[in-house]
Structures are given as C-alpha cells and as structure tokens.
C-alpha cells in the first residue's frame, strides 16, 4: 500500500464508519415510523400497502389519549416551571454570597443529582399514602420537582456564576430590589441556562412512566408515558399501527424541544459545571 | 451565642414551613378527593370514546344530595367498556332497585400480576379503597390477614341464599380465610384441563375424541402434531413470570398435583420445598421447551401470553393443545373478545392426566373470584346490599353466561340455559376431583417464586438448579421452621 | 465606584445576607420532604418487615438485620449486582463512552452537512423517550423484527435475540438511547483542544495514533472521567427500558438491581426487603459519586 492509497483510505474510512453507525442508529426507528403510517402494521417491518394518516387521526381524536397527553404536558411543564423558579431563587445566594456552608452544600447537591430515584420509590409511595397525595397529579409534580431540584440548582448556580455582577449592581443603584434585579437583569442573561434546565427536566419527566406508575392509580389520571407503557407492555401489541403512531406523537414534544434548544445546548455541555463548585 | 440563636431560628422556621407544606399538601389532597367524583363522572372514562352523559345527571327521581356513591373495583383486561364485567355491572346497576345508591366503576387496568399489587395498594388507605373489590380467591387469605377485608360472617348468615344451599358448599371454602371467617361472596369458579383443536388432531392422525392417560401420551400427541402439521404450535402452557398466577396454577400446579405431590402439607403445616414431584413437573416444562413443542418464548413469556393463546392462536388454528382454564370458551361467545361460532365443534376439552396415570387418573385445580368489602370501605352496608343483589340467581346467571365461567350457585348450575352452554358440563364434571390452592397467607409470595422457577426452566435452566433456588426462596419467605423436604 | 453607591450596595448586601435563607428555603423544603426524607425512610424501612399484603402488612415490625442477612444469602442479589455491573460496563462505560468518542472524533473537520445528518440520527435515539426506545428496540430485536429480516436477507437464519442474548439487547438498547450525550460532550471537549498543539505534533512527525494518545486524550482527561461518571450514574437507575423490553427475564438474566427491587417490592409484596435492595442501589450511587467528586477535584 503506497502513501497515496493510504491517504485515500484515511480520508474515506471515517465517512464509511460514520455512515455505518448512522444506519445502525436509524434502523430501530424504521419500524415505528413505517408502521405508524400503516393501518395493517405487523410486528415485522413491511412496506405499507397504502400510506395513510388514519392511525394518527385515530390516536389524536381519542378523548382518553388527548387527556393523557394533556396530563403529561401539565406534569412536565409544571415541573419545569417550578424547578426553574425555585432553582433560580436557590441559585442566587449560592452564586452571589459568601455563605458558610456553601461548599458542602454544593457537594451535597452534586451528590444528590446522582442518586437513582428508582431506589426511593417504595418509601415515596408510603410517604404519599401518609400525606394523602397518592393518586394525585399535583403530588406527582411535587415529587418530580424535588427529584430534579438538585440538578436544577447545580446547573443554574453555575450558569449564574457566569453572569457578571456589575449590571445587577447598576440596576440596584437605579433603585431596583433584589428580586427585580434577578428578574430583569440576571434571568434574561441566563436564558440559555434556564432553557437547558427546563428542557432537561421536561424531557426527564415526560419520558418517565415509573413514577406515575407507582404513584397514580386511576386510569383517567395517567399521563401519556404511562398510557403508552400500558398500551405496549400489557395489552400486547395488538394494534401495532396505532401503537406506533402514539409513540411517534409522544416523542414529538421531546424532539421539538430539542430542536428549539439546540443553540443553547452547547453551553450546557462544556462540562464547565463539573469543575467549579 | 448569636450564631446558635440564628441557627435555632432557621431550624425551627424550616420545620414550621415543612409542617405548613405538608398541611397544605394534604388539604389539597383532600380537596381534590372531594372534588374528584364530579370531575370524573363518566364511568371508567378510560377507553370510552363517546362523551356519555354523566350518570348523576340522569336519574331524576331523587336529589343528588341524598345519593350514596359506592365504588366497585375490578381488573380491566384492556377491553374497557367492551369487557364482560363492565357490561354486567352496567346492567345490574340499571336494574338495581335502590335508586339512592349510585354505583361507580373504578376498574384497574393492569396485567393479572400487577392487579393484586395495585389492589393491595388501594385497599391500604381509606382514601383509595373502593367499597367493593373483586378478589381472586387465592388472594383472600393474604389480604384478609393484612386486615384489608371486612369479615362477612354476620352478613352472610342473614342472607337466605347463602344459608339455603344455593351456593355450592364446597366452594365456600375458597372465600374462607385461615381464621375461619368468610371474606367474600364467590361469583365464579373454574377448572383446568387440556383444550385441543380437533381439526389439527385429525390432520395429524390423532383421535378427535382424545383422552390421554398420562403425561407421555400428552407429549406424544404434541410430538405427532409437530411432525405432521406445519406451522402449528403443538402445546401451549403459560410459563412466564408476566402471566402471574396463570403460570402457577394452570401450568405448574396442574403438573405438580398430577404427580400426587402438593405445595403445602396440611398435616404438618409446612411448605414442601423439595420432592421428586417438583422435579417431575419441571421436567415436563423442560421437555416441552427442549423439544420445541411449545410456543416461542417471545410469545409465552410476556404478560399477553394468555390472550395470545386463547384469542389468537387457538381460534386461528395455530395451536393444537392448550393447557388452560375452562373460562377461555367465554372469549368465543358472540359478545366475547374473539367471537368464534364454530368453537364448540372444533375444540375439545379433556381432563389433564396424572403423570403415570395413577389414581385419580386426572387432575384439576379450582379457583375463582369473589366480591369482597374492603376494611376501609366507606359504605359497607350499601356495598353488602348491592352484592346481595348482584349475586342473586338471575344476575349471577347473566354474568356466568356472558363470561363462560363455571357457576358457584347450585341453582344456576341446574338452569337449562347454563347447561346448554358447550363444555359447561365437562368442566363442572372436572370439579368433582378438584384441588384447591393452599389457604395460606404466604401463598401469593410462594406463587411468584413458582413463576420465577417455571420461567427459568422454560428459558433453559436445569430443573435441578431451578428447584434448588425455589427451595431457598421459599425458605426465606416462610421461614426455616415451616418447610419440609421429601 | 463612588462611595455613595458602595454604601448602598453594602446596606443591601447586609439585608440580603439575612434573606439568603428565604431564597434557599423553598428548594430545601421540597427536597427535604420529597427526597431526603424518603432516603431516610429507605434506611428505616430496610430494617422492617413492611409488606404489601399478608400478616406482615398488618403490623410493622423491626426485624433488625434480617433483610440484610437474606440479601446476603439470596443468590438473586448476587446475580442482580453482577447484571448491574455488566450493564453499567457494557452500555455506559464502554458502549456509550467509546462509541460517543469515536463518533465525535471522526466527525471532527468533516463536511458540515454530513456531520449534521449523522449527528441528527444519533441524537434521535437520545431525544426519544425511554419507553418509545424500548418499543423501537423491542421490535428491532423481535422474532420477526428488523434485525432478523436483514439477517435473513443475507441468508442467516433468525435468532431470538431477546431470549438468546437478552443482556446484549438491553446493552445495545441503552447504547442506542444514550450515546448522543457522550457524543455531544466529547464534541465540545475536542473543539477545545487547541489546533496549534496538534499541528505542532504533526510537524514533529507524530502519527495519528500518537497524537490521539499523547495529546488529545490527556488534554480531555477530565472530561472523560466526568462524563464516565455521569453516564454511569444515569445508567445505574435505568428501569423503564429494561422493564419494558425484557421485564428482567428470561429467568433472571437481565434482572438488574432496580428491576429486582421492583420485583421484590411490588410483585412479591415485600416492601421491606425491596427497600433494603434500594439501599444497596443508593450505596452504589454514593460510592460512584464520591469517586466522581474526588476525580473531578484532582
């Protein structure tokens, strides 16, 4: 092999490998996408005889499905909003003041972000019974907020650190209160960070079926995630087409949010959060 | 000094606020509890597509304020308003004379395995407990020992139907817990045996009137089918954890009891954790899978397996023999899940033999379901009145005819409409030799170990190893002093 | 800054120093009630016979270390720990990290449209909610699934993937679901590596492998450890994906600790024993995150 051939191979190889990886990642999606357009979908992948949107229409027009999607949105949006608001409040003193136990507090927070919430579901269930929150949508939201709080505080604090003090101080001189300073000066400068946190928390709970599975009981209160789980897990995949259509629809909010957030994402991925504290 | 004071202040105010928060939450919980019935008025809003008029609006003779709402919880197998129980409750409800009582359905959508956990969760708290709950008789003992159910002795002893012999005496055992009290009124029972497709048998050159005398003959028939008929599953038994009690009862216990062995030794009060019978039963499962006489694991190890075999494979002629319950015929009725008018001619139902053909020759296990009143129910008297009405002769008959189960009422059993149903006579006949599951509160937990054991054998573990693990797990559950090896 | 404004600021600061607590209060309160308290309860319940039904459900009893003794004796616990470790190593540490790194590395300096297409495809798996992932991969590996169809096209007979190599299927599923995260992280890290260093190395005659080993990897070392830990910890709690795909089966071959915990608590009705297993899971999380914090600090 001479140097020239070698060079060509080095040029082409990455493209070939990446294309192969890309195809591997694409294949599992194929079935869902194709079946969702086929009213006679089977478990195996096949070309639909007729491409229709009937599955989607059926799924969208069903009242219980609308309800499940509504509840899912309510839960996830409610959670994202609360996490951002409460998290900003908490991040402010952590970012701005010299507090005595700040360091250990931040370490505790960091530590808490890593705990698998799956592990605490049994006691949470017991807790919900004694607080009379079992089978209550707002209870689930509160739990979601709590479980995303450490992550929210951690990220927001780090984002807030990068907002310079002077502009806020200037606002104070103009007579703004601390809250007004946060609301009008700090928060707008942190929009990328806020969006990152909101999107992460939203998609975390939007995709979670385990928590509502344990904490809710009435079918009318089930969010879309749980509904889909039941659809898929328990009643067998009888109507594959509708199941696939439901899945695609259910994935849409996550996808949209991702696209929406793309310009903020790179900031959240610098891992700069990991080194400070 | 100043610092400690400040810290103290912080701690107290934190505690105070937590207390406030909790109070706030619980009052919120109560509010939503109070406000939820009107919000979710439509019966089982889940799969009902149409906006049905809310029931509280329809009856005009009474003012809504005087109404008592009683809730009834059962397992919805995914059919929603098409389900047999849903329709039956609606029917009974419509004819219920006491118009001051509103009956609200609060079904739980879950697989059979999950249903019991969900029920236990719901029964625990007064906020979530329904007024009436359907209990599989094997759970009654366990839930009764947990204090979840109301003893009904005083009530049933004052009920004529219960005392005048309308209910088959032997089946009252199923609703009596180990403390000797009655915790439910049974509404159906069942027996188990081998369903087989006569057309496939004919193709394979097997007798259409089939009476296997031992396990070998069953396996031999399956082998013949495998050899002679293509694209047909020779024999189906539920073998997964996901099918829950169906795996324990329809498969393992039918096999185990067929060897003459039992799960629990009544005389000594101990669980049998090691015996030749256990190995023989597991070897049967292992043989079926090793020789590929059974369904593909992907079909049989998921929660849907029971429906797949009875609603798809059997009616579509893709399954030759199915070890299953008498009730699956209910699927084939015109109002069933998989209507199949020809089923009475195509299907045969035969008794499952003992392993070597020893006495009593064939074996079956009987189970069944009952209506119970949770200890945390709010309207026990109204619930009891409704149960008495719902399980009277006429209403029981309606349910039994629609579901294809076996009746627990002697008077329904004599009804010509009932005896005219195909297979009812056979399956009722099986009941004479019926065995019951141990009336022990640990049974449900042991049962899940059985499911694990059977699934692991089905997926390749050797019967010896699986049995060893079963022995360990059961020992852990019931205690070292409650086991015996044979 | 004039002395007047400084004075104002000083006064404000003083006042706000008193109020910092009220800023932190809502978050601390909600975490205490719904997060820290349940963790304490986990600890407490793990010493009880708490059960969902049966005699034990009636009265809660402290049974000392019985649950832990049982855990020690229970072979399934050992199997679950082993499965959890295999799953962590296979899907998180090796799978997502290595694959994510390879993709990020190969994508560097490539055609923009190409980068975007591949990036989007990889990201699709990440953006897709867990349960849909489970469905996609379930149908992909199914008996009549896409993978078997492809194999049959090449004349290879079908394999029952979910039953023959269940652990592999859930590992691949998790790789499919999670690789994008590592890819994004490594893309950002690789972009930070100054081109001059690489160019200088090329001038010195270093081969591609040498550049990778001697320059790039040491430069992004910290990102690698941070990412490894984050991914590991995320994977530790994975429940839905496995539960929906295999339910922990067949047998116990894909029973990881979260699945085992769930089975003990909600299928076998033994909540006390379930919480003891939860605690084991929590401790694994603690150990891993301490390791993480330490490695970040260095």
Automatic annotation (TrEMBL), chain A:
It is a multi-pass membrane protein. InterPro entries: BP-dep_ABC_trans_perm (IPR050901), MetI-like (IPR000515), MetI-like_sf (IPR035906). Keywords: Cell membrane, Membrane, Transmembrane, Transmembrane helix, Transport. PROSITE patterns: ABC_TM1. The chain crosses the membrane at residues 12-34, 68-92, 104-125, 137-156, 189-215, 243-261. GO terms for biological process: transmembrane transport. Residues 69-261 form the ABC transmembrane type-1 domain. Its main location: membrane. It is found in: Cell membrane. Gene3D superfamilies: MetI-like (1.10.3720.10). One of its GO terms (cellular component) is plasma membrane. Belongs to the binding-protein-dependent transport system permease family. This is Carbohydrate ABC transporter permease.
UniProtKB/TrEMBL annotation, chain C:
It is found in: Cell membrane. PROSITE patterns: ABC_TM1. InterPro entries: MetI-like (IPR000515), MetI-like_sf (IPR035906). Its main location: membrane. Keywords: Cell membrane, Membrane, Transmembrane, Transmembrane helix, Transport. Residues 82-292 form the ABC transmembrane type-1 domain. GO terms for cellular component: plasma membrane. It is a multi-pass membrane protein. The chain crosses the membrane at residues 20-45, 81-106, 118-141, 153-176, 224-245, 271-293. It comes from the Bacteria. Pfam families: BPD_transp_1. GO terms for biological process: transmembrane transport. Belongs to the binding-protein-dependent transport system permease family. This is Sugar ABC transporter permease.
